[in-house]
Records
---
Amino acid sequence: MQLALLLANAAGSLYMAGLCAFVHRVHYPLAAQVGPAEFQRYQALHMELTGLAVGPAMLLELAATIGLVLFRPAGVPLWMPWVGAALLALVWATTWFGVVPVHTELASGADPRLLSELVSKNLPRTLAWLARGGLALAMITAAWHAR
């Protein structure tokens, strides 16, 4: 079970780290290139399709993180699952209280100020997911060396 938790955590974290980095660096900046007439449809599709792409991975990551805190694998230092949980709390907080509200506002139409705000509010989330990805690999390494 502990190996499954480590692998599920790594899969969710690394998937989300890569996806969020791509969205931050490529997808969000490209949104500014969508014409005003098409923007509302683009934004509605973005929100719908992104939810399908991130929802299962975020839930997998959440479940694995809780599991690692409760059932820490041998060799994994106590602080690692807790730091992972804190980073995940930051991810969820910046998602629901930072990024999602801006997306909701953008559903009314393109706004360069809001697009810039979206990139700014997404940066902490991107960095937290990248850190979680590295931490997930470090936990696998620690457990591997302890066996």
---
Amino acid sequence: MRESFLNIAHNEVLQAAFLAWLIAQGAKTLLAWHATGRFSLERLVGSGGMPSSHSALVVALTTGVGLREGWGSTLTAITVVFSAIVMYDAAGVRRAAGKQARVLNKIVSELAANKPVREERLKELLGHTPFEVIVGALLGVAVALWRMC
């Protein structure tokens, strides 16, 4: 018998992953609001900042799969590798891109001060510090354990 695609909404592993992402995005928004004194809708859906919602999502997914399928399963191994890649990208590649954007924005500002230049600001908050990734990962484990145990 074929399962309805709509049954995916009842998947506890998927629910745990998205709940971890939602909690991380909410926390990130509240922390940014506290730090700046202004609410930013971009923080609610944007990347970068504390905690890493990408890390929370993939680690909750991995934890949920490990709890459901067993820690020695091939599927758990796949999610561990997937999580490692996402977290490395968040703390490495995207963080470096954010630093480059900051330098380019400074160059554009300095050029604009001397002569007319079409100024297009680049998004600087792309990646995460290792601490933000770790906090996101711990949040993912906690949410998956809370949701599935």
